[in-house]
Design goal:
Strand content of chain B: 25-35%
Oligomer: heterodimer
Number of strands of chain A: 9
Order of helices and strands of chain A: EEEHEEEEEHHEH
Radius of gyration of chain A: 14 Å
Strand order of the largest sheet of chain B: 10-11-12-13-9-3-14
Number of strands of chain B: 20
Helix content of chain B: 10-25%
Radius of gyration of chain B: 20 Å
CATH superfamily of the largest domain in chain B: Probable tRNA modification gtpase trme, domain 1
CATH architecture of chain A: Beta Barrel
Largest sheet of chain A: 6 strands, antiparallel
Structural class of chain B: alpha+beta
Number of helices of chain A: 4
Strand content of chain A: 25-35%
Number of helices of chain B: 8
Order of helices and strands of chain B: HEEHEEHEEEHEEHEEEEHEHHEEEEEE
Helix content of chain A: 10-25%
CATH class of the largest domain in chain B: Alpha Beta
CATH topology of chain A: OB fold (Dihydrolipoamide Acetyltransferase, E2P)
Shape of chain B: globular
Largest sheet of chain B: 7 strands, mixed
Strand order of the largest sheet of chain A: 1-2-3-9-8-5
Amino acid sequence: MNPEDLRYADSHEWVRVEGDVGTIGITDHAQKQLGEIVYLELPEVGHMYDAGDEFGTVESVKAVSELFTPVSGEVVAVNKGAVGEPGIINDDPFGDGWLIKLKLSTDVEIGKLMSAEAYGEYVAAEEQEK
Amino acid sequence: MSVPVPQASLRRTPLYDLHRELGAKLIDFGGWEMPVQYAGILEEHRAVRERVGLFDVSHMGEFDVTGPGALACLQRLTPNDVGALADGRIHYSAFLTEKGTFVDDLLVYRRAADSYLLVVNAGNTPKDFAWATSHAGPGANFTDRSAETALIAVQGPKSAALMARLSAPDPSDLPYYGFRETTVAGAKTLVSRTGYTGEDGFEVYCRPEDAARLFRALLSEGKPDGVAPCGLGARDTLRLEAKMALYGNDIDETVTAYEADLGWIVKPKKGDFIGRDALVAQKQAGVPRKLVGFEMVDRGIGRHGYPAKTAAGPGIVTSGTHSPTLGKPIGLALLPAAASAVGTEFSVDIRGRDAAARVVATPFYKRSQKP
């Protein structure tokens, strides 16, 4: 299930805030929708992003999806392990499959993101539309 | 991340409920709600290369062509030599425009000199039927059997053993591109030794009302073989490794048979056919561009529609994926003929980044022995 300590975006990324650093990944729902991930493109450390910017791409066998950062900040770490073995995102999307860490520009954006419960309802509503 | 959602009012095959039951992920494929995967594309791909996989391809179109003028008609409508086809045999062919480009690619099954089955791409079925009937001469009757025909592909090295256990008479002695009528799990079928995976395999045509029972029987009987239901995702990676063209990606009404490297289905010596003059002229003049296989040198996957840059001018990627068998990105591209030799380096514009790629020999994968 979706961990309670994370915040969620409607584009299916999550953010974990520790001090002024936010770790970003994609949700379990997102990895399931994508299928087996075979390729991951992430930015270099030092890149600056505004909330909503595309910061990379994730590719399954079938499709390419853009990755959007739900928060603003400077990239302070990228998960090289996931770039080398993208399948880790499928195996552990909320843990070892994290993507980048940002030094957050502001703490007000986090409050606008969804809680685990709200995200769960959002996904359920999206499924209903099918 | 954006997640595609199937639209309403899609057509469904007789196996739709079974796909749901088996946990398939369904997508819109040319207006059909089809399984893209069950367990996962990589696992399904492996099942077909190593064991046996089942595909619902009931969306494909089937036409009967019968009558005393059927042979003459098909000789005129298709570039391959139907006169050279024996009863019970199949060949790969096409409907071509006057320019020698593809209306569609298809299989021709010869039952007898006056009776044929054509199998065409799902999305092209109405267009093909209209085209064929408007070009048919006297004495050839076309009947669209698509709605009353379901189709299950049984593909992989263990497919022959599985089919043998369920069928009477046993179709496992069929030659490659041969077919016969047989009973599979009690259902009346036409079985051919064909497929779209580069692996040994069979395609089983049956009545829609028998399809689900047949699919279940194959799943159940194939359990000891490690049978897996497979979706269109694996079908695409399998066909691409075998360098089989996909209509709408690699070939369409802008690509000629020679450009598509499908000159082996063009038989100008058999007599006139639609597209012949243009193809003969193009062969004399030389093709301006050619469909080639490529591998990525830089990281990334060159996908359908991505622009290519060569020393001889622009080209375009027509298909691209991660090859599960080779563990690296592969693809097909239409490149200027002068840049189409094996070993030629070029670049693919991957969403704004120029990534190096190299023309390689195809197919990317070839099975060790044919039946």
